[in-house]
Design goal:
Length: about 425
């Protein structure tokens, strides 16, 4: 690994705000597939995949070729929100590969290229269309770090960074939060004019809370939430920034519940190549934006349009990727169940290729992640107290790579518990 002297420029010049480089203190240089290599030539298996932005692995060769071809012919790189050939192809492919086969009548908005920007756009649109101000969010939610997105995020430390009151939201208990009927409170409060809860513009929900600790909402919960919103004219926003693009199996994570959200946010793996891109999908009638009402200089990342198109064409024209994701998820589940059977105070939860190993003693998760790094595996923690080791491997990972990483993790748990 890299020496401390080589790392000083980051300490001297780069802001203290940097984060992941503290968990993984080496100098990364190249990457391919499920592997990332540092400047000393050491390979690490990547079970974090750019926080879910690299569902097809690092520098996927098919996507790389599409990008190289586009750059080589001087295809437009920066396009504001002008109509371009690359955007035309992407829109046509979204229509033919994603929307049409699922009977979804959405319009597509290109906001600024981050998940937080897509969330901001979704919240603004919901407020504009309904004329209402409040948004209902969920305990342990994470939606991004800009003010609107933070207002619907649960974590107190992250909220504190806003420096201003974060208002016009009402948090509701997420599935599993109370060990009971979590939606009963929302339902009762919405129908009781004395509950103190104003009729909201929208509810924003993640189908699996990634940052919040791999909390999985059951299909029944999502279905009831959708019905509850529809019956009251409240818009349902599914934030699929982390769980969309096949992370849980199907392209849209809400497909397992058979629901059609009013608004969907996508980012992270939508470009397929780790390049910044975000989308907001909205039911056709909700597209009440005035031209330029939500804009941004970097809405036209055309190389990202090209890789996004190639991703949809190559990975989503049939159901094979969703099937292999389910099978690989089952493999992780078996391995994590063995660990939770073997060790006291360890449990597991997840869906598809997002899985959490949950430690009753929160500090153990960080310990396991540190030992795993020493053994050549990148894996992060999440949850309110960072008590969950969260697995987000590329969907294209091979079974052998998956088993290799799982064996490192198993050994790391053993070592964290005092083994050798
Ligand atoms: N929504 C969800 C569900 C997320 O997981 C994230 C990022 N972790 C965001 C929004 C914010 O995305 P970004 O970091 O690109 O702003």
């Amino acid at each position: 690994m890299t020496t401390t002297a080589e790392m000083t420029i980051f300490e001297e010049l780069e802001s203290n705000v940097r984060g992941y480089c503290r968990s993984w203190p080496t100098l990364f240089d190249t990457a391919q597939g499920s592997w990332i290599r540092d400047d000393s030539g050491r390979d690490f298996l990547d079970f974090f995949a750019g926080a879910g932005s690299l569902n097809y692995g690092h520098n996927n060769p098919v996507l790389k070729q599409a990008l190289i071809d586009y750059i080589a012919r001087d295809g437009i790189t920066h396009g504001l929100d002008m109509s371009t050939v690359a955007k035309q192809k992407l829109l046509e492919t979204i229509d033919s590969v994603l929307l049409n086969p699922r009977g979804l009548d959405y319009k597509v908005q290109f906001p600024g290229p981050t998940g937080a920007n897509a969330v901001e756009a979704a919240l603004k649109l919901a407020r504009k269309v309904t004329g209402r101000t409040t948004i209902l969010n969920f305990t342990n939610a994470f939606h991004g770090m800009t003010l609107g997105a933070l207002s619907v995020t649960g974590n107190a430390a992250k909220r504190a960074g806003a420096g201003v009151p974060l208002t016009y939201v009402n948090p509701m208990p997420y599935d599993g939060y109370l060990d009971g009927d979590e939606l009963a409170w929302m339902e009762k409060a919405l129908d009781d004019s004395s509950s103190g809860i104003e009729k909201p513009a929208a509810v924003i929900v993640e189908t699996v809370q990634g940052e919040g600790g791999v909390n999985v909402a059951r299909a029944e919960f999502l279905k009831r939430l959708s019905e509850l919103c529809a019956a009251r004219g409240i818009l349902l926003i599914v934030d699929d920034v982390q769980m969309g693009c096949g992370r849980t199996g199907p392209f849209f994570s809400f497909e397992i519940a058979g629901i059609t959200p009013d608004i969907v946010t996508l980012s992270k793996s939508i470009s397929g190549y780790g390049m910044p891109l975000a989308l907001v999908l909205m039911r056709r009638e909700l597209d009440q934006w005035a031209p330029g009402e939500h804009n941004g200089t970097f809405r036209g990342n055309n190389p990202a349009f090209v890789t996004a198109t190639a991703t949809l064409e190559n990975f989503w024209a049939d159901g094979r990727l969703a099937e292999s994701t389910a099978a690989k998820g089952a493999r992780i589940h078996r391995s994590f169940s063995d660990l939770s059977d073997t060790y006291e105070g360890v449990s597991t939860r997840g869906r598809g290729l997002v899985h959490g190993l949950v430690f009753d003693e929160p500090s153990e998760a960080g310990k396991v992640s540190r030992i795993a790094f020493e053994q050549g595996l990148l894996v992060e923690t999440s949850g309110a107290e960072d008590e969950v080791v969260k697995l987000l491997p590329p969907l294209t990972i091979t079974d052998d790579e998956l088993d290799h990483g799982l064996s490192i993790l198993g050994a790391a748990v053993d070592k964290a518990r005092g083994g050798n």
